[in-house]
């Protein structure tokens, strides 16, 4: 059922693009393109299930402060090139982890959270456990540093259980 739904969405998207460009030539996709795009969407959905988008202070309290799992909070901006590298890398490293969540906060739309946590530069990453900051780093770091942070959070989570 998921495959049919994703394919149906893709075809509807193509129809919208076709109607938007009604004065230009017709826009059609061969079935192979729809199937290829469908597979891509399905594979990405597995990654996005761990990513929590925080839109305001209330969501932050609910999804980070009150979380049973440790949460890595990534303060980022759309215009920030290092952020565009760091966020996908963290998603990749957390993809197989059910023990740690990743929350992404856009600094442009969440100025109150930026002020609360005194974020001075992006990317800024804070690790939370039981509503308390237990570790942090600023800027683009290598994958080993991120893995070390994840392992530290996993070990403490296993000790807690």
Automatic annotation (TrEMBL):
Lineage top rank: taxon: Eukaryota
One BP annotation, GO: cell redox homeostasis
Database matches in InterPro entries: Thioredoxin-like_sf (IPR036249), Thioredoxin_domain (IPR013766)
One GO CC term on file: mitochondrion
Gene3D superfamilies associated with the record: Glutaredoxin (3.40.30.10)
Positions of the Thioredoxin domain: 18-155
Family note: Belongs to the thioredoxin family.
Name of protein: Thioredoxin domain-containing protein
